[in-house]
Input
Amino acid sequence: MARIGHTTAAYPHSTTVAGALPRRLQPTLLRRLARFARTKPLGAAAAAMVILVLFLAMAAPVIAPYGPTTAQEGFERRPPGPEHIFGTDQFGRDIFSRVLYGSRVSLTIALAAVATGSISGALLGIASGYYLGKFDLLVQRFIDAKMAFPTIILAMSIVAVLGPSTVNLIIAIALAFLPGMARITRSSAISLRERQFVDAARAIGGSDRRIMLQHIIPNAMAPFLIVATAELGGAILAESSLSFLGLGTQEPNPSLGAMLSRASQQYFLRAPWMAIWPGVALSALVFGFNVFGDALRDVLDPRLRRG
Amino acid sequence: MRDYIIRRLLLGVVTIYLVATLLFVILRVIPGDVVAALFGSEELSEVNRANFATIRRELGLDQPIYVQYGKWLWSLVQLDFGRSYVSQEPIWESVKWAIPVTLQLALFAVCISVVLAAVSGTLSALRQDTWVDYFFRIFTITGLAMPSFWVAIVAVLGGAIYLGYFPPAGYRPPTEDLGRSIEQFILPGVILGWRGSAVVGRMIRSTVLEVLREDYVRTAYAKGLQQRVVVIRHVLKNASLPVITIIGFQVSALLGGAVAIELIFGLPGMGRQLVTAITLRDLPVIQLLVMLFAVITVISNLVVDLAYGWLDPRVSYSGSGS
Output
């Protein structure tokens, strides 16, 4: 994986198995990380932020001072203070703890959805770009149709039918993000299939499946990683929007989006912290993934740069 | 050119047909049985069981899948959208009032995002690596990171509490009261547009940077034109083409974001109706609204494609254009 940066030119790794790479390339990986931090300070800061948030979310049960659903009577709508650093909500639940657990829920759903959506999208896109012809035409027209649905609307209608549960939320977001990835990997596959090393592999009798798995996929990794990282921010936003609309994670389970819905608006006058902190956390998460994704794109594949 | 338009229109029709098919698959095939989902399969009391069978028959779920599919397409072609489960009224009667609201919001948001993006992107590029550039880049990055529904909550409630400003409640169409209508849409439009402007602004910044290095820009400066003239006549004109494409994509994102915004600002648009319909599990209404959202996206992409072909003489109208 660490090699993807220069595979574009002279080093298509056509014979190595991806799993064997890390050990051999570790020194280069470290050096690359150092260079990444030097050339992209903002990106590195965002990466550090992403890692910190991932850590906080994973360690939520240890760090959080209270349980996410523990309601303390007599402590309703307390302003931020030493005992509740983000204050409490209308049921006396600690907002800091809920934000931690909520980020954990958002991250889990976003990661699972992006992994599912990206991998299936990438496989579809690669097959479509590799075979071309009628199969490609059919797949592309369906992807056109799918792209006509705004992401959130599509996810909403899927949740409407399946009902709001964590797994359904993951399915809905994954399906909504699938076509974008299919588009990107299709165009990689189209340009890769014309390359000499693919011709060579075909000449020695490699099957289509072998060519796709060992030659096309490893060389299409860079755009895949870039798009997947960029989609994480979008998936977090999608999850929080759905939860905000009452179609995602359900009360009393903590979710950053749901924390911003009705109650926080109702009590905004007397308890603005209820609406502020979940939003700040949400923005920080998305910010981290977006900026990290941009930096990753610049480093891995400057040609994809758009702004 | 005429062939190009006809081909694009045909492709648009094909896409809408596939959209209808896809929606049919999502709403009817994937879950197995909508009615079970509608009622919640566990709580089937005796009364519900009777309803269950009736609704299944009404929806035609007892018929084979290809018959259902044919009926679904036929009803769309006839523009017959059926009745709401909840109000028993023809759906179109309530939905038709929501369409202009959402369109007006989307139009406002697109215009605001383009203006914001043009200003921020161009200034950013002209003053590359100065504080102006950093300011606008932070402006766009934060715009992308903050969920618009949160910005809307903070803006509406913060504005009401600290500035004593309330956006007018109760929707009036612009034909009735233009000033009021504009006032009502300006804040939601700005919030949605900010987000859109982030993507477009970044695009404008990088294309302007590219164009600034072109020979014809140097020539324009060399013949003594003022910067303002060079920027407007040479740079922006050439930088606008890729931007138009991305605006097409923005419409879809805007419509998605509009759902929460309509809810927060109390605008009776399609998004708000969709949320209500989903809460009430009113399937025919959900179907029609989602279909409309997709059709609006397809049409706006079509318009963008046509505008692109019209603006850029280099686009070839023959061959298999992508």
About this structure: Chain B touches chain A through 55 residues (CB under 8 Å).
